[in-house]
Specification:
This protein has helices at residues 18-50, 95-101, 188-194, 310-319, 323-336, and strands spanning 51-55, 69-73, 80-84, 104-105, 115-116, 127-131, 145-149, 157-164, 169-173, 176-179, 182-183, 196-200, 215-218, 234-235, 240-243, 256-260, 271-275, 293-296, 301-305, 362-382, 386-393, 398-405, 427-430, 440-445, 450-455, 458-459, 464-465, 479-497, 514-515, 520-524, 542-543, 547-554, 558-565, 568-575, 581-582. Strands 12, 13, 14, 15, 16, 20, 21, 22, 23, 24, 25, 26, 27 and 28 form a 14-stranded antiparallel β-sheet that branches. Strands 1, 6, 7, 8, 30, 31, 32 and 35 form an 8-stranded antiparallel β-sheet that branches. A 4-stranded antiparallel β-sheet has the order 11-10-9-29, with no helix packed on it. It is 12% helix and 33% strand. 36% of the residues are buried. With 584 residues, it is mostly beta strands. The protein has 5 domains: 20-53; 69-126 and 557-582, no CATH class; 127-186 and 500-554, Umud Fragment, subunit A, CATH 2.10.109.10; 197-263 and 357-497, Jelly Rolls (Sandwich), CATH 2.60.120; 271-336, no CATH class.
């Protein structure tokens, strides 16, 4: 119970005198001084017991939380992305070498390499407001962002994500977190808080010979029926549109698809093969450029390691008039540039990126406006072993989930994959009212070996867990969407991935589970390839006594601005209002 202090006695005045004026002046000065002292004490008490601000210096939590970085605008697709830079290069004796290694960036959206950022001004890290009372009577929950004192250097404050809780046996396996032998799964909100953008369809190069659209419409199979309108998607500047609402019996029509191809410009270590029955007589094998190319006559295969460069493909086409060979070259070029999604970060310099790991944990997000018709809209995802089909049935006003195992060698874009004529749904939900003419945002994910569907920020049905057999290759075409018998517009199309927790250069919770004692937490950074955290520390655990608090607000993120005065250009640090946000 709070007790109220009694009011002070009232003082009456009988008229001003000379001494009264002096007293008022002294009282005013004293009141200002007391107010300043009170404010100072209040701020001190607030910082000591309630909340305190911290600025992030390194990029171990990127892209969720940024350290010192540069805001890079890709000259090709024009998306803006952060690129990490050291905060102490001015004092580093190797600062020139470090600056040189950080002068080129790679766009994480379109893959443009060699982006010169030497003249881009450095930006400060995010500033956090930390609730110092958050863990006074409660413990951090899994996936919470926490601020704590470094176990090895208690004077240093760190920020990471809590993934292991007291008393658990934790291990990193295949990029996931396993606790007591079971994979731990994120809720929808936790997925949104940790997801990393892979590709935004709204940012695509307008004129670029080295880029292929990641989302590509595929013609519907030819069933021999003549139609007034073709069964295919049309593209606008930032959207896909399908007009099939006038079809009377849409269930008789095949689905028209739009597939995601993770196109890379160059490089890679993937092996790609295409059939070639005979090597052309007019091409000397010794004259073929050394670009990882090889021909196996026994298997009748033409292969390449990595993405076949366009200039090499052109040289091969000029060498022969054999149409079978020329067709194989074109196919090899196209197929070799499509790879699995990996855990690459646009934030990291090339010398810190490490070897990329394939990622199956993907999420599609799109705004869907169904404007007419009586057919269905379908989203299909695969983990390489199973196809998950989410069907939005306009007539039944129902959303159904189907799961179908892929046969060996079958691809997601195979005509026989996906929905079968006798399949039964494994789950269903009522039609979301928001999917009308104005549309709603649909998100479907395969994070943490579970399928999750959300509409306008709310889960539609219970997550569907699944198992993934060992040694299953990651899919080349991981996701697609299709339609038949509806008028529909798909916009704001984005692909995300989950954090892939790496085990390279790690010492703890990798080869075997690590057991946490009471009051111990295992913490990891979102930027797993470069983060120094519980995996690598000599003292891997964060004790409860080292916890400072929970950050709840990015309260003063900044962005650089230029001020021109005459012939001089001054770099300023301006608030970035769009990035001020509460942390979940």
């Amino acid at each position: 119970m709070n007790a109220l202090s009694p009011p002070p006695p009232q003082i009456k005045s009988f008229g001003p005198t000379d001494s009264d004026v002096d007293t008022d002046e002294r009282g005013t000065i004293r009141a200002l001084a007391e107010a300043f002292v009170s404010l100072f004490v209040a701020v001190l008490l607030f910082r000591t017991f309630a909340a305190e601000g911290y600025m992030i210096s390194t990029g171990s939590m990127a892209p969720c939380l940024l350290g010192f970085h540069k805001r890079v605008v890709c000259p090709t697709c024009h998306i803006t992305f952060p690129f990490g830079t050291a905060y102490d290069t001015d004092e580093d004796p190797d600062s020139e070498t470090m600056a040189a290694s950080r002068s080129r960036a790679v766009c994480p959206n379109c893959g443009q390499t060699g982006i010169d950022i030497s003249d881009v001004p450095r930006n400060h890290g995010d500033q956090l407001l930390v609730n110092k009372q958050a863990f006074l009577y409660a413990s951090p929950k899994r996936w919470d962002v926490v601020v704590f004192r470094n176990p090895a250097h208690p004077t240093e404050a760190y920020v990471k994500r809590a993934v292991g809780l007291p008393g658990e046996r934790i291990q990193i396996a295949g990029g996931d977190i396993v606790v007591d032998g079971q994979i731990v799964r994120k809720t929808y909100r936790q997925q949104v808080a940790t997801r990393i953008l892979v590709h935004d369809h709204a940012f695509r190069p307008a004129k670029d010979d080295g880029f292929e659209p990641h989302w590509q419409a595929v013609d519907a199979p030819n069933d021999g029926i003549e139609r007034a309108k073709p069964l295919s998607w049309s593209t606008t500047n930032k959207s896909f549109v399908f007009r099939g609402g006038e079809v009377r019996r849409p269930e008789k029509d095949p689905l028209a698809w739009v597939e995601y191809h993770h196109w890379i410009r160059s490089g890679g270590q993937q092996d790609t093969s295409v059939p070639l029955a005979h090597w052309p007589e007019d091409v000397d094998v010794a004259s073929v450029p050394a670009a990882g190319l090889r021909y196996d006559p026994k298997r009748s295969e033409f292969s390449v390691t990595g993405a076949l460069p366009k200039e090499i493909a052109r040289q091969l086409l000029e060498m022969s008039s054999d149409e079978a060979f020329r067709s194989a070259v074109r196919e090899l070029y196209a197929e070799s540039h499509i790879v699995a999604v990996t855990d690459e970060y646009g934030y990291n310099p090339a010398d810190e990126a490490g070897t990329p790991n394939p990622v199956r944990d993907l999420m599609i997000s799109a705004r869907i406006a169904i404007q007419g018709g009586s057919g269905e809209f379908v989203i299909e995802l695969t983990n390489g072993a199973t196809v998950f089909s989410v069907v939005f049935d306009v007539i039944r006003r129902e959303v159904r989930l189907f799961t179908d195992p892929l046969l060996e060698g079958m691809a997601l874009n195979s005509p026989s994959s996906g929905l079968g004529p006798k399949s039964d749904p494994v789950a269903s939900a009522s039609w979301p009212n928001s999917l009308g003419n104005d549309g709603g945002t649909i998100e479907v994910s395969l994070f943490d070996k579970q399928l999750l569907i959300a509409i306008d920020g709310k889960p539609l049905m219970d997550p569907w867990p699944f198992e993934l057999p060992a040694d299953v290759q990651p899919p080349r075409i991981p996701i697609r969407f299709g339609a038949r018998g509806v008028d529909i517009k798909v916009s704001q199309l984005k692909l995300y991935r989950d954090i892939y927790y790496t085990d390279s250069r790690s010492r703890h919770a990798v080869n075997r589970p690590y057991e946490l004692h009471d009051d111990e937490f295992f913490v990891l950074g979102d930027n797993s390839p470069v983060s120094h955290d519980s995996r690598r520390w000599d003292k891997p655990c964060v004790n409860r006594s080292h916890l400072i608090g929970k950050p709840f607000l990015v309260h003063l993120p900044s962005k650089p601005a230029n001020l021109h005065i005459g012939n001089q250009e001054i770099h300023l640090r301006m608030p970035d209002w769009e990035r001020i946000r509460f942390l979940r």
